[in-house]
Amino acid sequence: MTETVDVEGADTTIGGSEGTQPVGTYEVATSIVSVELSGVEVEARVSEPLGAPGLRPGVVFVHGAGTGRYERAFLAQAEALASSGVVAMVPNKRLDTYTTRDRDYTAMANDYLRSVTILRDLPGVDPARVGVYGESEGGWIVPVMAADNPAVSFVVLVAAPVVPPRQQAAFAVDSYLRETGVPVELLRSIPRFVGMDFPGGGFEYGRFDVTPFQQRMRQPVLMVYGTGDAAMPTVQGALELIEDLEVADNDAWTVRYYEGADHGIRVDGELLPDFARDLSAWVQALPASADAAPKVAGAEPYQRFLAEPVERPRWYAEGDLIVAALVLSLLALLTGPLAWLVRRLRGRRGRTLADGVLGPLVAMGAGSVITFLALVAYLLVVANMAQNYRSSTFVVQGGWLGLRMLGIATVVAGVVLIYRILDGRRRGSESAAQTLAGEWTLAGTVVGSVLLLLSLAYWGVFPSLW
């Protein structure tokens, strides 16, 4: 990352906030309303300031990734806004059309716009001052809602990815794993995994591009990041949004960075009071606060790497083929045990493989399976550590070293096997496989092991091979 955002000062206080009410001014009343969507109904919690005079501005909250229930989401934000005189509405996320494989951000935007319509019609709400607040994944939905839509009077984007989902996923995983201290070989495999088409299809939303919608947003925009959020391109996101708003001829934008705050602008699990203060002031003071100085303020953000487009892997690394190769390798490795079992059931005894072949063959087959399972276990452990911002040199580096040693030992067993087969042929002694069952055992174990070892090499266990 070579560009940067010019932060004009450390004070995040929103200018143009004269006459606004601070957080905590009013008592808050909550109620539940129903939102009719196409084919389903969801509930929404409305938080209102008791005794606030006149028509009040309103905010509809748009959830990030996950289930999105009003009982848990945006509680502190809605309370802060309502206690300062802003009506806040948190609808439940529609889940019947939202899965890991399939998401339609345009359809989700249309669903959330139904909540905007309801909030605009509530008593005590100024329909000309109702905006939307999107956090994380909501940063791909809110611009769709706001593009060319005067019903949305302002936009708040918190921890917005800006770049397409696949690009964002690769960036986030890379950032988390770098913080954990994983080997560079593992980092190189991230785009290979994120860029492939997954088995069974789906995940088309991973290529969703929010840029055309941001370029049609003409409302005032408040963009917020926490400097402790490693998952987001905190510099690149702001720069790209500003460029998109320039296309819309919109200079009514404000950017705020909060020191040490995480993805939800929290520190130690609590919503940052300065953020609640600034959010409330910005919403209340509109339109005066839309272009109030400073436009960029707060802590100095840092982004080491760009969130770049993820290329499609080569044909042999697509999800369906990877799964097919894995299944084929396991079936091939089962050939030997099944052949041995069939011979036993038929009462046949005697050798199926020549002397000196069985040992390295078993070591090669078992080693490839153990190494593959060890890789899966290692990835799960490291992923858990990365999500919880933990690191351990012994686990991360020591585990990777042990994994590579297992892989090398398996390759050595394969080399010994080949040497003994060739040596037997050179000396004109008996064949490596004594029976048909032996031939199937030898072929199946070698084929299955080679497929697993190639897969391990692709994911970085043998980086020198690729």
Automatic annotation (TrEMBL):
Keywords: Hydrolase, Membrane, Transmembrane, Transmembrane helix
InterPro entries, per the entry: AB_hydrolase_Est10, AB_hydrolase_fold, BAAT_C
Sections of the chain in a coiled coil: none
Keyword Transmembrane helix included in the entry's annotation: yes
Residue ranges constituting the BAAT/Acyl-CoA thioester hydrolase C-terminal domain according to the UniProt record: 115-171
Superkingdom per UniProt: Bacteria
Spans through the membrane: 321-341, 353-381, 401-419, 440-461
A single MF term (Gene Ontology): carboxylic ester hydrolase activity
UniProt region (Disordered), positions on chain: 1-22
Protein name (database record): Alpha/beta hydrolase
Record organism: Actinotalea soli
